[in-house]
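Researcher: Sit down with what I've pasted below and flag anything odd:
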Amino acid sequence: MSDLIAAVATGSARSAIGVVRLSGEGAITCADMVFRANSGRKMADTPSNRLVYGKIIDKNGALLDTCLCTVSRAPHSYTGEDTAELQCHGSPAALGAILTALFENGARQALPGEFTKRAFLNGKLDLTEAEAVIDLIDADTEAAAKNAAGQLAGAVTGKTDAVYSELLDIAAHFHAVVDWPDEDIEDFQLENYLGTLEGAEKALSALLDTFERGKILRDGVRTAIVGRPNVGKSSLLNALLGFDRAIVTPVPGTTRDTVEETCVLGDAKLRLVDTAGIRDASDEVERIGVERSYGAMAASRLILAVVDSSLELTEEDAELIKKASLRAPTVIVLNKSDLPRRLLLPRELEGMSHADVCAKTGEGIDGLARAVTALLPDVPEAPAGEILTNARQAGEVKSALDSVRSAKAALFAGVTPDAVLTELESAMEALGRLTGKSLAADVMERIFHRFCVGK
């Protein structure tokens, strides 16, 4: 067992419930030092996974809180070690006092991610499942949460382990023939394994292809908000965010540079880029801003083209909408719907997705959300955890895929079996790094550094 660690698992904000976790050697004994069950029974004598009501006291016997306590014994716990949890009231002051009482009885402050790191080191989670824990915590949308939950349940591991097992069978057969030539072992013929290599290539390629969708799921869809000056682009940004991020004035050309923020709109996560108003620039600074607006359009997967519906559509409006639609899926945002409408869309633009919005009041945002969702078929609605959202994972899958393809090419080239096996073993090493079967210590530290304390 490892040394005893403790942390508040529910963060530093005030809440109704706060959880303090203990894990490591002496966890249950330490819990008994501060927790007094109303029944008088010690947690050391209580079965695992049973909630017990009682109170928490400090070293002087002063009451700190009333709470529920539960223990789990190794190896049947989240970390694989003896653990205890104190489910208390969520006052940060009370939780801090309880943590101090635990420190006075031999525990130390847990490091960020240390509970999950111990679960990984003790074989309770592989690395893809451990990384899914923080992805689940950080999930902004239901789709992202479902994908992370699927990964936590082993969806990625199930796919890669099947490939690893098939490659291992090939390597085991080869080494058996080489190491025991006098045994009655079927001759090793590489061509007999072509189907296996093709199956591995197909599985890894399909998994790697999910990474582009995974980046959208995790980071959001890069979305440019464009339009002429003073049509309400910055007001729309503020309305989507729910707070005043961009400066809004009646003066045209207030926004001179791009402003970026992330929001959740309907079922989609968007990386919004508010841009400078597009027009013939009157000075050098504004000209640079307009150039950046066009650059933001070119780099986006979605464009919100904002027009003032209280005015007639100008040639500049129509031209900008057409340019936007050639670059990415575009929603025409008919802003200022609280004013009498004068704008009529020409026939060539009528079929485009559009939504009436009042950015000043937020009216119509739900309709905009529906229009955006309809234009984003690449955002999965109910992923099962088989979508890669992690650049490290995608890199290891690509390394494995490249090695499998090299092995297949070597087979067709007629090279000796040991050369093919070298590539297959490289693929297996990459899959091992993916799940953590073989992982450098510095990489592991960097991965768990993402976590918060108490997880």
Observations:
- The CA atoms of residues 139 and 236 lie 24 Å apart.
- Confidence is low (pLDDT under 50) at residues 181-185, 251-256.
- The chain is about 45% helix and 15% strand.
- The first strand starts at residue 5 and ends at 8.
